[in-house]
Each structure stands twice: as structure tokens, then as C-alpha cells.
Design brief:
The complex is a heterodimer of chains A (277) and B (327). Chain A is an alpha/beta fold and 277 residues long. Helices cover 30% and strands 20% of the residues of chain A. In chain A, a hairpin with a 2-residue loop joins strand 1 and strand 2. Chain B is built from 13 helices and no strands. The chains are: A alpha/beta (277), B mainly alpha (327). Chains A and B meet through helix 2 of A and helix 7, helix 8 and helix 11 of B.
């Protein structure tokens, strides 16, 4: 299904600056995502790619600047955004099954502002968060559908600790898909997964973009980015370049990002204009 | 032995029966609340909150006595314990900053929790010393809150304990699904709009309620074991949150019931210690004997695996039954 999604930028960063305690990590990032594109965030280790996503999503405090989603603060449009954190960020020994993890994506669904709740198209008027009791039937149905989409319907009642790394990543993708969001933000979804899962992720990204949704993913493999993404955002503490992969992943740009890394803990803020293309 | 059977069959007299029912309900509440505290990795915080109750009890007694009120009344003491518990929880929450990006900022949660735990208990001991020296303080039995004492428990107090435990139990069940989502993946939960801080605060409040409920029967030093042990025991047997909650409630109830009965039948055994010993025995038994995660089962399976490997290296097919011909 193709919906009207061209209203505004799915994500817009305005002078985003982040520091951990007194160490600056990201400096003055301004950028806007085009709807319906697959966008890779690339850069060397420690460039602040994860921090960029986390700061935009409000998971780490921002020192200056702001992030807007569909022209609004995230709190107004949470149901249009789905986040897939790094697989290592959770304890996979946690006592839940695959289907329960996917249904967790819907626990607060429809509670973040009336327009988003209506737009999410939940039947039965599930406007209030269901925090208690069993998984509501509607949530269970959507969760099962999402698990089926990632090819794990057979393993729905398997404890997550018994899944392989690739299957765990697919459960995380299903949790995001169940939210039926217009923007997916994924942190290193390809890290440590098998080929099957990699192909499945890429196929889903292509489908999502075709539907007019936007995918933003941190990725390390530049060849794969060239082949399977539309745009790239090259960061190394500051924004090095952004635009179509064919232009942005050029040798001279990459040399600036990877070849001459900025100093370990203090970005040089005044040498090149941020946002240079 | 006959005494124990009488008590277990609720024939130990009205007072004993009320206490028994109270500690059983306390066990259920502690098991359920403790499950979520364990999943959220807040067991040590629960310990700090229970230690923080001591200065609250002593200070409430001192303040009430100086204002001319009856300092010994349980509700007054509980309010004091509640206030210091909240202060301790807030102190941990504000002072602890988790490590980010490999860089430690300030001190870690475990360090801060340990400091809050020790300092609040130290403060409590000082205040308790002052309180016992004031008029009436010696007979107030404040020190019994440290280790617990069911013998002097009034039926009225047992009802208050049941009320607190029941309230914590209901609240934990209502918020259970949200607690589980936050415990599994806090960052994801925050992006979906769940009020993570408020939920953490609610969990701390429930832990405090259980602590207050168990203060008189079990004692503030041991009540944390009743929150931790049943949940940890259940974790060794089941692999989903709902079953975990139910089983932890069962183990908690069993501990509260058996422990209180033992202590009633053997007058010199303090109830708190008996309850906690039952809870910890259940844990130890499960740790060794659980078929899936137990140490014994794992050792047996590992040995079988090793035998298979040796056989394979010797040319026999792996996992062959004894006497099977080698190819």
C-alpha cells in the first residue's frame, strides 16, 4: 500500500551536538532525510554513528540543536517511528518468547497523541496503552503477522535465547515492522548475521522504500551500501557528506572520513563547513 | 512435631493463624514484585531500600516522641521508613550514571547503591542508639525491626502488613507487562513512549511497600531475601515471564507459610530467619536439581557429551549405544 508520506522530512537534524559528560562526540550536524529512501549512515569506528541515532531518538541527552520527525518532536509522532537497537544491547537470556518480544513493540502503541493513534489504524479503539495482563488479541495477531514476514512464524513460541544471532535480529526487525511505522531507524542490523538474514533485511528495506517509507541504517560494508542503499550519510564527529551513494561514496569523500580521522577526543569544528556535499 | 502440624493446619490459635496468613501473602507479593526487580536488575537497589528503612523508623520515633505522640505506633514508623526509602531511591537514581561509550562518568550504579546502603544503615544505627536512650524508647522494641519478630505482632499489624503486601501485589500485576518491556530493552521502550522513569519509580515504590510490609515480621535486613530468592528460584525452572511471576509467587508463599509455621512451632526460632532460610533452601535445591538449568543436570549432560566425543575420537560413531559395532 502506498500512502501520502511526502508531507515533511521523516527526520531532520538541526545543529545536533552531543557530548558524553565533557567529551564532544557529535558536532553541529544538520541534515534532512528524503522520504521513501534507504539511507545508510557510514563512518569509521567511533565516528558517532550510533550516537547520532540515539541522540535523534532522545536516548542520549543533546548538548545543542534538535531532531524533528515528520516536522514534529518525536513525542508527537512516536507511532510513525520504529527503532531497532544493536542486538548486543539486550540480555538474550531474558525469559520471553519470540512472539512476546514482537508484541512488546505495540505496548505503548496508539498512546502518543490522538492523530497518530488514529492514523495507526488500530481496530477496536485501542487508544490506551495496554500495560497489564496478557497480550491483547489484536497485538498478538499483528505480532504474528510480522514474525511471518521475517520467516519466523514457526519459532514464535521459542525462547529468544534459543534463537541464532540472525534469527534474533529478525525478531528485532519484526518488532519494528509490527509498529507499521513510516520511518525505521536501525543500528547495525547487519552485524554478525548470516547471509539469509542479510538478504531478508535488504529485501524488506527495498519493499519499505517502495511503499514510501524511509529506512535509516548504520552499516559498515561500503560495497553493500553502494549496491543496496539510495543515499548515504558520512559522519566522523561532524557531517562529512550526505547524498546519493554514487556521489557521496567517492574516494575523496571517504578519504576525508576514513583516511584522516579527526583527533581522538576533540573535533575540529572550524576546518570544513558542515554539510558539505 | 505435633505443634508444627497444628500450626500448618491453621490450628495454632487465632493470632498465629493471622500471622501465618500475613506472611504467606507477604511471600506472594515479594515473589511477584521481586520478579520484576530481578528482571530489571534492581535486586541490590531493593537491598538498599530496605536498609534505608532503619533511619526512617528511628527518626520517626524520635520526631513523634518529641512532639508528644505515641512514637511506637506502626503507621508512624512506616511513614518514616517510607520517606527515607524514597530519599535513598532518589539518591541512587540521581547519583548513579551508567558507563557510556566506554567512559565511566561519576560512579556506577552498584557503587552508588552500596554507598547509599551502608550510609543509611550507619545513620540508622546512630539514630536507633539515640531513640533507645529516650524515655520509652527502650521498650519500643525498635531494634526488633532490624531482624523481625512475629511474637509481639498484633493482629492489627498483621492486617496492615496484608494491606501493604496486597496493594503491592495488585499494582505489580497491573504494571507487569510494561515492567517486562522496560526490563528487556529499556532504550527501545523509551522510543515507543513508555514512561520509563515513572515505571522505574513505581517499581522502587513497590519494593519499598514490600519492605515495609515485611519489616515487622521478617525484619528489614532479611526482607530483601524474600524479594530476591523466590524470583531467582523460579528463574531456574521456567522460561517465560508469566510463569516466572506465578512460580515466584508460589515459592514466596511457601517460604512465608512454612517459615512462619516453623517459627511458631519452635518458639526460639525467629520467624524472619526461618522464612528466609526456607526461601534460600528452595533456591539452593533448585540451583542443583533443576532439570534445565541445574548444576547437576548440566554436569550429567556434559559428561555424556564428553563420553561421546571420546568414542568418536576412537573411531566409533558419535552417540552410539553401547555394544554397537564400529563401522
Amino acid at each position: 500500500m502506498i500512502r501520502q508520506r511526502h508531507d515533511t522530512h521523516p527526520l531532520e537534524l538541526r545543529g545536533l551536538t552531543v557530548a558524553y559528560a565533557d567529551v564532544p562526540v557529535l558536532w553541529n550536524i544538520s541534515w534532512a532525510a528524503t522520504p521513501g529512501r534507504r539511507i545508510a549512515v557510514v563512518g569509521p569506528n567511533g565516528a558517532g554513528k550510533t550516537t547520532l541515532l540515539e541522540a535523534a531518538l532522545g536516548l542520549v541527552p543533546v548538548l545543542a540543536g534538535e531532531a524533528r520527525f515528520f516536522g514534529q518532536p518525536l513525542a508527537q509522532v512516536r507511532d510513525r517511528v520504529a527503532y531497532v537497537p544493536q542486538r548486543e544491547s539486550v540480555d538474550w537470556d531474558f525469559p520471553v518468547t519470540a512472539i512476546e518480544v514482537v508484541a512488546m513493540g505495540l505496548v505503548a502503541h496508539g498512546a502518543s497523541g490522538s492523530s497518530a493513534g488514529k492514523r495507526a489504524g488500530l481496530q477496536g479503539g485501542l487508544r490506551w496503552p495496554r500495560w497489564f495482563g496478557n497480550t491483547p488479541r489484536e497485538h498478538a495477531r499483528r505480532a504474528m503477522g510480522a514474525l511471518d514476514d521475517v520467516g519466523l512464524a514457526d519459532l514464535a513460541s521459542r525462547p529468544i535465547g534459543q534463537l541464532s544471532g540472525g534469527q534474533q535480529q529478525r525478531v528485532f526487525l519484526a518488532r519494528a515492522l509490527a509498529r507499521d511505522a513510516d520511518l525505521l531507524v536501525l543500528d547495525e542490523p547487519f552485524a554478525g548475521v548470516d547471509t539469509t538474514t542479510e538478504q531478508l533485511l535488504l529485501a524488506h528495506f527495498a519493499r519499505l522504500a517502495e511503499e514510501g517509507r524511509t529506512v535509516i541504517a548504520v552499516h559498515h560494508d561500503l560495497d553493500a551500501v553502494r549496491a543496496h542503499f539510495d543515499e548515504a550519510l558520512v559522519v566522523n564527529r561532524e557531517l562529512i557528506a550526505a547524498g546519493p551513494v554514487s556521489e557521496v561514496l567517492a574516494p575523496e569523500v571517504l578519504a576525508r572520513a576514513y583516511g584522516a580521522p579527526l583527533h581522538e577526543s576533540s573535533p575540529q569544528v572550524d576546518h570544513s563547513p558542515a554539510g558539505a556535499r | 512435631m505435633k505443634d508444627l502440624v497444628d500450626v500448618l493446619l491453621l490450628r495454632g490459635g487465632f493470632n498465629t493463624t493471622v500471622v501465618l496468613a500475613g506472611t504467606t501473602l507477604l511471600g506472594i507479593a515479594a515473589g511477584v514484585v521481586g520478579t520484576y526487580a530481578m528482571l530489571r536488575q534492581r535486586a541490590l537497589v531493593a537491598d538498599a531500600l530496605s536498609h534505608a528503612a532503619l533511619p526512617g523508623v528511628a527518626a520517626a520515633f524520635l520526631v513523634a516522641a518529641s512532639l508528644g505522640f505515641e512514637g511506637r505506633s506502626l503507621p508512624v514508623l512506616l511513614v518514616g521508613a517510607l520517606l527515607t526509602g524514597l530519599v535513598a531511591a532518589a539518591a541512587i537514581e540521581i547519583l548513579a550514571r551508567p558507563a557510556r561509550n566506554g567512559r565511566k562518568v561519576g560512579a556506577g550504579t552498584d557503587t552508588v547503591t552500596a554507598v547509599v546502603l551502608a550510609s543509611s544503615f550507619g545513620l540508622g544505627t546512630v539514630l536507633l542508639g539515640l531513640a533507645t536512650r529516650t524515655e520509652g524508647g527502650g521498650q519500643a522494641g525498635l531494634a526488633s525491626y532490624v531482624f523481625g519478630r512475629t511474637a509481639g505482632m498484633l493482629v492489627r499489624d498483621a492486617y496492615l502488613m496484608a494491606l501493604l503486601a496486597g496493594g503491592a501485589l495488585i499494582a505489580a500485576l497491573v504494571l507487569g507487562r510494561a515492567f517486562a518491556v522496560v526490563a528487556f530493552n529499556e532504550r527501545f521502550a523509551r522510543t515507543t513512549g513508555l514512561p520509563v522513569r515513572a515505571l522505574d519509580g513505581a517499581l522502587a515504590a513497590l519494593v519499598t511497600m514490600v519492605t515495609l510490609a515485611g519489616m515487622q515480621a521478617v525484619g528489614m535486613l532479611l526482607v530483601v531475601a524474600l524479594s530476591v530468592a523466590p524470583a531467582a528460584t523460579a528463574r531456574l525452572w521456567v522460561i517465560n515471564v508469566r510463569a516466572l511471576t506465578a512460580l515466584a509467587a508460589f515459592f514466596g508463599a511457601l517460604s512465608g507459610y512454612l517459615g512462619a509455621a516453623l517459627s511458631a512451632a519452635l518458639p526460639r526460632a525467629p520467624a524472619g530467619a526461618a522464612i528466609v532460610l526456607v526461601a534460600c533452601s528452595l533456591f539452593t535445591f533448585s540451583l542443583v536439581c533443576s532439570p534445565s538449568r541445574g548444576l547437576l543436570a548440566i554436569a550429567v549432560r556434559r559428561r555424556a557429551l564428553a563420553r561421546g566425543a571420546v568414542a568418536a575420537a576412537a573411531g566409533a560413531p558419535p552417540f552410539a549405544t553401547e555394544g554397537a559395532p564400529a563401522p
